[in-house]
Every structure is written in structure tokens, then in C-alpha cells.
Design a protein that fits this description.
globular; binds adenosine-5'-diphosphate; EC 2.7.1.17; seven-stranded mixed beta sheet; 15 helices; alpha/beta; D-xylulokinase activity; transferase; Nucleotidyltransferase, domain 5; single chain; binds 5-O-phosphono-D-xylulose; ATP binding
């Protein structure tokens, strides 16, 4: 009898780190660990290593593992000095302080079209390039000490290899910096200079299946990638399917053979982890809006879900624009949440719960509409991320997107996708793991004679247009 071979994947995400160990042959998760990350949008990268060590403290977790890769929250600016020490805390993807810097950079290059042509995306506060401009303008002493700029997954990859190789990144995560051209696979040093007034050392962009080093225990390390690119690998996304993630962020994306160049800025023209592309729409307001409303209603998440499912599609006219953390897509960094359409009859806890879920999902349906127009037909949705385990999110999503929704049992798609990449690096062939989908939800609204996806879309777009006119 041959013993099974094991690979591991890590998701170093906004709120926590998750580690899974998978069977190389089938992809089945055989062991897992997790640990929390510090709260906040400005975090010492060293805390991610501490959390990783906590999550993997049990030596049995990684025993027998042959290869490991890291998927990580995108865009975060990790600055290193000439000795390789951290210059300051990392500014995360959801830190909005660089919003004005992004606008300046758009002007400096000659407008959004120039950025969309150059790197496939128009910068917003999230992008590393905007954070670099902020650092240069607001902390010149720290800026002067910066020798190298890397991303969260690059940092953890380098640390779990005990810094025995120079920091590396991959094409997927590099494409979220705003200074990497994924069409030619080259850094745009001129854009780094535009933002930071000088060049900095940047991590080598390793090909998808390279072994970039080894841990002190001899485990081979793959290049890793951004969390959304890893998630696409873990979800084994079929054609004409948009992947929706509801973690801290809300994300709509789909693997594509062609890069998008959306000058409106709705779609970021990112790369994936296989050598292709991953057009992606990201909001700042995913699961935490649901958590905030459940707290406001003083109910646990399970009861919040039941409440939402007891309300009719359209929440009897309540509209909740979920901009509790400002917003990135559309770019409204100073916006706040909006609750509209209240009457004496519809202002119920059930409608508030359902409207919150409808609002969060609609903000991604808005993105899916752009993906349809610019990237690919979308005939179904796959759900992942922490809030994808909410029964209400799963059952309401089809009504908001207007297409069937595919779901999984609890599943760490980013970590599993990273493990799949590790298997690729180990064997030279991308493992053919089967789809994790275990559930399918059909559109119900029309059958129930209630508000349809098109009607809901029109209602939300009207409120959004008012907010955009004001901000
Ligand atoms: N059943 C649920 N309903 C709503 N939100 C949930 C549920 N389960 C988990 N969450 C939320 O999902 C988020 C964690 O999702 P995750 O994808 O791990 O986030 P991230 O990758 O951004 O760290 C947390 O905000 C958590 O409160
Ligand atoms: O900024 C983006 C994508 O552009 C986010 O998707 C981050 O990558 C964080 O993801 P989560 O931690 O919310 O999963």
C-alpha cells in the first residue's frame, strides 16, 4: 500500500490565518489550523508570522507535508529597510488614507484611461501604488528608509522559508500593486517613481509552479499568490461562472484568457495564478455589514439569518447601501451606509436583516454586471468566504444575482487553492481536484411574485446615483 502524499496551503487573510493540509491526489482536507490576526487596517507584518506559528504550533499539523504555498490578502504595503527589517506597520487593502493619493496619481499619469492601458486597473486607495505615494508625502523619514516593498503573501512566504531566499511574489498578486503590467509580465518602474519619486527593490515574479525555497523542515515552498487568485484555484471555477467571496471584502471575479482594461475603474484587470487573468470587482463591505446589523438588532448570526429569510424579496421596499467602511467600488471612500424607503409598516427587524444581505449582495451584482459587459457571460454564481456559510446569504443570493448560485460546505477556498498550487510546484502538473460544490440554489423571486433581480437593481442604482451626486 502506498502512503498518501500531502500538500499544505495558507490563507493569510484580513482577519485570520488558516492552514489546510490536503491529500495531493484528491484535494481532500485532512488537517487544518487557524489563528486570529490583529484588528485594524494598519498591522505589523510580524503579527502574521506570529499568527502562522500559532496556527501551526501542533507539529502533527504539517507532519508529512511535502510542499506549501501561501495565498494572502492583496495590495498591503510591506516596507523593508536595507537590512530586511520592517520600516513601519503595513497599510492594508482596506486602509483608505491613500484615497487622495490615488486620485492625484490618476491625474499625474493623464487620466484613468492611461492607467487602464498601462496596468489594466485604475488605482484606488487599496492599491500598493497609492500607499507608496501616501508614504512619500506623509512620512518622508520612513520613506527614505525603504529599500524594498513586498506584499503580505510575499512576506509570509519569505519568513516561512526562514529568509533563506530573496523575497519573491507571483503574477497574480503583483498585478494588484498598480505597478505591474500583467500583459508583458514586467514591473513598471516608471509608475513606482511617479508614486514614490524613486525606484525601490521589488520581489522577483516567480512562475506559477516554481519551488522558490524550502522551510527549515525541508518542505518545498511554492510562489503563493493573492487570496482571490488562490480562491479561484480552490473553487475550480467553471466557464461562465462568477466567483463571489464574502469575507471582510466583497469580491466578484472570474478567470479569463484576456485582461480587462476598464477605465471606469469598476473592474480591476488582475492576473490569476495560472498564467491567465482574473478580472475582479472588490468592495470594502462584505461580511462585516452583516455582523454589524446583527449586533444592532441584538441577535446572533444564526438568528439574523432566520430573520432575513422570513422577510420577502425586496425587503418590502427597504434599501440598505452597505458603505459602513466607506467604499472602493464604486470609489466613494468617504461614503457611509444608507438606509432608505422606511415606512411604518416595513421597518421591521426581518426587513432590516434581509435588506442588509440584499445590499451587500447587490453591491457585487453591480460588479457582475460589469464583468458580463467586459469579460464573459455569467450564467451562475459560486459563493465562498466566511459569510457564504450564512443560510440566508445562500438562499437570497440567487434572487439578487438573478442566476443560480452554487455553494460549498464550510470550505477554505483560498487555503485549498494555495495547497493546489503547492501540489503543482511539487509535481510539475496542476492537480486535477474535483469541484467542492455541494449545493445549488435557484432564483425564487419571480415564482413568489415578489421583487425580481432587475427591479432590485433599478432600486439600488437610483439610490447609488443620489449618493454619487452628493459625494
Ligand atoms: N454565518 C455567517 N454569517 C455572516 N457572516 C459570517 C458568518 N460566518 C462567518 N462570518 C463572517 O465572515 C468573516 C470571515 O470570513 P473570511 O472569509 O474568513 O474573512 P477574511 O478572509 O477577510 O479574513 C467574519 O467577518 C465573520 O464574522
Ligand atoms: O483587496 C482585495 C482584492 O482586491 C481583497 O479581496 C483583499 O485581498 C482581502 O480579502 P479578504 O481578506 O476579505 O478575503
Amino acid at each position: 500500500m502506498t502512503s498518501r502524499r500531502l500538500v499544505a496551503g495558507v490563507d493569510t487573510s484580513t482577519q485570520s490565518v488558516k492552514v489546510v493540509v490536503c491529500d495531493l491526489e484528491s484535494g481532500a482536507v485532512v488537517r487544518s489550523g487557524r489563528a486570529d490576526h490583529p484588528v485594524g487596517t494598519e498591522v505589523s507584518a510580524a503579527a502574521w508570522l506570529t499568527a502562522y506559528r500559532e496556527a501551526t504550533a501542533d507539529p502533527a499539523l504539517l507532519a508529512g507535508v511535502e510542499a506549501i504555498s501561501v495565498g494572502g490578502q492583496q495590495h498591503g504595503m510591506v516596507t523593508l529597510d536595507a537590512e530586511g527589517e520592517l520600516v513601519r506597520d503595513a497599510l492594508l487593502w482596506n486602509d483608505n488614507r491613500s484615497a487622495a493619493d490615488a486620485l492625484e496619481l490618476i491625474d499625474d499619469l493623464g487620466g484613468p484611461d492611461r492607467w487602464a492601458d498601462a496596468v489594466g486597473s485604475v488605482p484606488v486607495a487599496s492599491f500598493t501604488v497609492a500607499k507608496l505615494r501616501w508614504l512619500a508625502r506623509h512620512e518622508p523619514e520612513n520613506a527614505a528608509r525603504v529599500d524594498r516593498v513586498i506584499l503580505p503573501h510575499d512576506y509570509l512566504t519569505w519568513e516561512i522559508g526562514s529568509r533563506s531566499f530573496d523575497p519573491v511574489t507571483d503574477r497574480g498578486d503583483a498585478s494588484g500593486t498598480g505597478y505591474f503590467d500583467a500583459a508583458s509580465n514586467t514591473y513598471r518602474d516608471d509608475l513606482v517613481v511617479l508614486a514614490f519619486d524613486r525606484t525601490v527593490a521589488l520581489p522577483r515574479v516567480a512562475p506559477p509552479a516554481e519551488i522558490v525555497g524550502h522551510t527549515s523542515e525541508g518542505i518545498a515552498i511554492g510562489p503563493g499568490t493573492g487570496d482571490n487568485a488562490a480562491s479561484a484555484l480552490g473553487m475550480v471555477v467553471p466557464d461562465r461562472t462568477a466567483l463571489i467571496s464574502l469575507g471582510t471584502s466583497g469580491v466578484a471575479c472570474l478567470p479569463s484568457p484576456v485582461q480587462t482594461h476598464d477605465a471606469s475603474g469598476v473592474i480591476a484587470g488582475f492576473a490569476d495564478a495560472t498564467g491567465q487573468f482574473l478580472p475582479l470587482v472588490c468592495t470594502l463591505n462584505g461580511a462585516r455589514n452583516l455582523v454589524a446589523m446583527s449586533k444592532a438588532l441584538k441577535v446572533p448570526l444564526a438568528e439574523f439569518s432566520e430573520l432575513a429569510m422570513s422577510a420577502p424579496p425586496g425587503s418590502e421596499g427597504l434599501v440598505f447601501l452597505p458603505y459602513l467602511e466607506g467604499e472602493r467600488t464604486p470609489p466613494l471612500p468617504d461614503a457611509t451606509g444608507e438606509l432608505r424607503g422606511m415606512t411604518l409598516t416595513n421597518l421591521t427587524a426581518a426587513n432590516l436583516a434581509r435588506a442588509t444581505i440584499e445590499g451587500v449582495l447587490w453591491s457585487l451584482a453591480y460588479g457582475v454586471q460589469s464583468l458580463r459587459e467586459q469579460a464573459s457571460p455569467v450564467e451562475q454564481i459560486m459563493l465562498t468566504g466566511g459569510a457564504a456559510q450564512s443560510a440566508a446569504v445562500r438562499s437570497i443570493a440567487a434572487d439578487v444575482f438573478g442566476v443560480p448560485v452554487l455553494t460549498t460546505d464550510p470550505y477554505e477556498s483560498v487555503a485549498v487553492g494555495a495547497a493546489r498550487q503547492a501540489g503543482w510546484a511539487l509535481t510539475g502538473a496542476l492537480p486535477e481536484w474535483s469541484s467542492p460544490v455541494s449545493g445549488r440554489y435557484e432564483v425564487q423571486a419571480r415564482a413568489r411574485g415578489a421583487v425580481t433581480a432587475e427591479e432590485l437593481d433599478a432600486r439600488y442604482r437610483t439610490v447609488l446615483a443620489e449618493v454619487q451626486g452628493r459625494c
